[in-house]
């Protein structure tokens, strides 16, 4: 019996993936576990190995196009086994559909005002293979079927898969689905312009179209979901950081040297952001009621302070997580962040390194941004936006003095954290950041 | 318990249980009489009537000429006049010869005459394969008659049920068609003494289970129970429902079971296409149980061919225990 090779779900949030390259050719003999192809997910590249030993046939998963999770991309035949002409109708269909999709964004096509049809086919998730029971359970639990891997034949999602996803809390992404539908049903809801409508506003030849990669699509989807389903409110405080800067210098100057290559380098070099991460984690530990996530049925009250840190990478951003940051030393946080950021830029993070977390920090201070409000990254209930530390005139005891001031804005999910509680959290942060010795104990 | 009167039981064969039901009915009600080819002195093609002619005489155990249409017409006419005839076919295949009387007369008369008459006839049809009787004497055509409003069509699977359901059929004011699988005639089981009825239109859960619902008819109930026993050793817990009556059909029992197990397989000897299993599958797809299905519905029915004479091919033509085990295993383990 030929064994199906499907496009696997390697990322909790993934509904489609792209094969960046096949590592074997049609007719190749493989052992179970041999690498078959490389897949580009929303956030990482990953190599996929063979589910069986045999001969690779009917490679239908083309490189560089979006393929739904669970789709058959090739078959492994036994030695001497007759090859079916059409192993299954599904691969043939998508193969036909997929190139059309890939061509859709080409500038030539776009110039003609007819391209509405291919745009409509772009949404693949409605074609999810799932049993009626799995569909009902997912709907009741508010889970997104397109984010669940099916264990049944041809990737069918069955009851057990939905239950497993519900336990992980993984596919909760879809809580967005229901409210979003309701919103779009309301007549007043603004309709997004179609691609054609947008392109018609610009002179032909005056632009270039860059097709979205999967990270760009994920960012777009998750942020629309967050901004349209989470009732954000914002709290801003100014923090004086002269003491923090002094402590940082003192600590960095005191860093022991360790061997690196031919020479030596300091064992750590703390950044202001490392200290912000630590202070935010400590604040969460001090105000545990604000260390929560919203779900429809219950408040998820976290026991650890896991802080996601937004890292800008070419083409987008990613938020690796420093786990239990309140319990780690500043040097540990600093070195961990350097490693996470480096691997984020080369897209080598593992999914568990950027999924989950209890809150996040986004710092645009290095660009001189004074103050901004960040979008909450579900399942977090808060995100701290950090501006630049700058010398400002401050009034103290009736006198104008100079201090280094850093403005921070906490975006808060009102369903989970009310105003006073959010203020308490931010005050705790200010307390720690302005009395930085607290971070050392 | 189905039995309305609790009495001692003893072991009888399916054929003996039918004979006992007919004898009890004739003793209770003088309007009851039997008709059929060679049911008198010969005792019936399958020895179901046996020596009843000696007990009740040829007036009430009446041999008919070899004309199914004629015999059925007499039975239907007698029923309209208030008698309670039981007409035996030698083989259910020959119902084709009597279709006019069954479909156009028996099933329609109450309706055509505005309820002024009813047709309390019972027809008995020895059915099914497995006896080496070849293509014209081995069919399972119950779905044909199941398609006709105005008829009741039942397939008792045990000696207990066939006695109780035959007595219920005789009491019933409308025509009742009883399909008796020929391989069941020698099957033995506990049968209560005396009079009792088993209601028509009510399925029986023969085995409770959590993983898969098998709805089976007639002899397939026993094959499915054997399969369920094997599957239990593999940890697959099968619920087996004996449909008992294909018209009216006990939809609720099936729906409730599928809501519990999330999987359905229909096992029946009639040709798979457009058969009893097709009706059950479609009924489930239309019902609230749809949202409880975790796998496709599977039908195991007879092959799309006349029943072969060769005994091995004959067996291969209808579902057998091994095939039921495999199909159930595939369904529960997610291979289909």
Can you describe what's shown?
- The complex is a heterodimer of chains A (441) and B (336).
- By secondary structure, chain A is α+β, with helices and mostly antiparallel strands.
- Helix content of chain A is 31%, strand content 24%.
- Chain A has 13 helices and 20 strands.
- Chain A has a 6-stranded mixed β-sheet with strand order 9-20-19-18-14-17. In chain A, strands 1-8-6-3 form a 4-stranded antiparallel β-sheet, with no helix packed on it. Chain A has a 4-stranded antiparallel β-sheet with strand order 5-4-2-7, with helices on one face.
- The longest helix of chain A has 16 residues, at 214-229.
- Mean pLDDT of chain A is 82; it is low at 86-125 and 172-190.
- Chain B has 336 residues and is an alpha/beta fold.
- Chain B has 2 domains: 9-192, Rossmann fold (3-Layer(aba) Sandwich), CATH 3.40.50.970; 204-333, Rossmann fold.
- In chain B, helix 1 runs parallel beside helix 7 (159-171).
- The two termini of chain B are 38 Å apart.
- Chain A binds chain B through residues 131-136, 151-153, 156, 158-159, and chain B through 262, 290-295, 334-336.
Helicity range of chain A: 25-40%
State the strand order across the main sheet of chain A. 9-20-19-18-14-17
N- to C-terminal distance of chain B: 38 Å
Low-confidence stretches of chain B: none
What percent strand of chain A? 15-25%
Number of domains of chain B: 2
Major β-sheet profile of chain A: 6 strands, mixed
Greatest contact between two chains:
A-B, 12 and 10 residues
Any idea of the CATH class of the largest domain in chain A? Answer: Alpha Beta
Q: What is the ordering of alpha helices and beta strands of chain B?
A: EHEHEHEHHEHEHEEEEHEEHEHEHH
**Envelope shape of chain B:** globular
CATH topology of the largest domain in chain B: Rossmann fold
Oligomer: heterodimer
From the 3D coordinates, which CATH architecture of the largest domain in chain B would you assign? 3-Layer(aba) Sandwich
Cα-atom Rg of chain B, whole angstroms? 20 Å
Tally of separate domains of chain A:
3
């Amino acid at each position: 019996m030929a064994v199906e090779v499907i496009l696997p779900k390697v990322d909790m949030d993934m509904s489609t993936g792209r094969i960046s390259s096949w590592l074997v050719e049609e007719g190749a003999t493989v052992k179970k576990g041999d690498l078959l192809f490389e897949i580009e997910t929303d956030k990482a590249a990953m190599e996929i190995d063979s589910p069986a030993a045999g001969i690779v046939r009917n490679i239908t998963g083309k490189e560089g196009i979006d393929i739904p999770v669970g789709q058959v991309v090739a078959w492994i035949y036994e030695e001497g086994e007759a090859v079916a002409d059409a192993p299954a109708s599904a691969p043939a269909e998508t193969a036909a559909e997929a190139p059309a999709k890939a061509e859709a964004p080409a500038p030539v096509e776009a110039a003609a005002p007819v391209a509405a049809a291919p745009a409509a086919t772009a949404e693949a998730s409605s074609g999810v293979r799932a049993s009626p029971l799995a569909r009902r359970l997912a709907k009741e639990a508010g889970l997104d079927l397109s984010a669940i891997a099916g264990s049944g034949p041809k990737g069918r999602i069955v009851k057990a898969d939905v239950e497993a996803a519900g336990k992980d809390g993984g596919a909760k992404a879809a809580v967005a689905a229901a409210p979003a539908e309701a919103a779009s049903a309301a007549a007043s809801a603004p309709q997004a312009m179609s691609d054609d409508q947008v392109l018609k506003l610009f002179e032909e030849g005056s632009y270039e179209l860059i097709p979205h990669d999967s990270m760009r699509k994920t960012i777009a989807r998750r942020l629309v979901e967050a901004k349209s389903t989470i009732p954000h409110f914002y709290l801003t405080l100014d923090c004086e950081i002269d003491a923090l800067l002094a402590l940082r210098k003192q600590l960095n100057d005191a860093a022991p040297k360790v061997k690196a290559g031919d020479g030596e380098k300091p064992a750590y070099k703390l950044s202001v952001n490392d200290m912000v991460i630590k202070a935010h984690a400590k604040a969460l530990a001090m105000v545990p009621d604000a260390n929560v996530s919203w779900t429809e049925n219950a408040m998820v009250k976290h026991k650890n302070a896991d802080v996601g840190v937004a890292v800008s990478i070419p083409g987008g951003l990613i938020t690796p997580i420093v786990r239990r940051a309140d319990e780690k030393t500043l040097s540990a946080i600093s070195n961990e962040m350097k490693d996470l950021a480096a691997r984020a830029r080369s897209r080598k993070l593992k999914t568990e390194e950027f999924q989950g977390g209890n809150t996040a920090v986004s710092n645009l201070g290095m660009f001189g941004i004074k103050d901004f409000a960040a979008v909450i990254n579900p399942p977090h209930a808060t995100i701290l936006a950090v501006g630049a530390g700058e010398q400002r005139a401050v009034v103290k005891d009736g006198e104008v003095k100079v201090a280094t001031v850093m403005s921070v804005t906490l975006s808060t999910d009102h369903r989970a954290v009310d105003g006073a509680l959010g203020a308490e959290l931010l005050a705790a942060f200010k307390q720690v950041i302005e009395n930085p010795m607290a971070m050392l104990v | 318990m189905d039995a309305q009167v609790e009495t001692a039981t003893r072991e009888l064969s399916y054929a003996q249980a039918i004979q006992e039901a007919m004898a009890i009915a004739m003793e209770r009600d003088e309007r009851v009489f039997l008709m059929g080819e060679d049911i008198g002195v010969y005792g019936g093609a399958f020895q179901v009537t046996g020596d009843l002619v000696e007990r009740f005489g040829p007036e009430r155990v009446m041999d008919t000429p070899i004309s199914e249409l004629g015999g059925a017409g007499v039975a239907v006419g007698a029923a309209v006049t208030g008698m309670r005839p039981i007409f035996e076919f030698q083989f259910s295949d020959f119902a084709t010869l009597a279709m006019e009387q069954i479909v156009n007369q028996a099933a329609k008369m109450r309706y055509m005459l505005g309820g002024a008459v009813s047709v309390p006839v019972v027809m008995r049809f020895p059915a099914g394969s497995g006896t080496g009787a070849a293509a014209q004497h081995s069919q399972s055509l119950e779905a044909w008659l199941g398609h006709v409003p105005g008829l009741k069509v039942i397939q008792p699977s045990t000696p207990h049920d066939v006695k109780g359901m035959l007595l219920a059929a005789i009491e019933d004011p409308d025509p009742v068609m009883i399909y008796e699988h020929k391989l069941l005639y020698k099957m033995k089981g506990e049968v209560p003494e005396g009079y009792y009825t088993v209601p028509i239109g009510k399925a029986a859960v023969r085995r409770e289970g959590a993983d898969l619902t098998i709805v089976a008819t007639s002899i397939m109930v026993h094959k499915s129970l054997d399969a369920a026993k094997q599957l239990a050793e593999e940890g697959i817990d099968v619920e087996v429902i004996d449909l008992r009556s294909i018209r009216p059909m006990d939809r609720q029992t099936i729906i409730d079971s599928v809501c519990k197990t999330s999987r359905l397989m229909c096992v029946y000897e009639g040709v798979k296409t457009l058969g009893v299993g097709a009706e059950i599958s479609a009924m489930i797809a239309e019902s609230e149980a749809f949202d409880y299905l975790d796998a496709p519905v599977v039908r195991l029915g007879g092959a799309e061919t006349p029943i072969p004479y060769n005994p091995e091919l004959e067996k291969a033509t209808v579902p057998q225990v091994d095939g039921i085990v495999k199909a159930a295993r595939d369904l529960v383990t997610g291979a289909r």
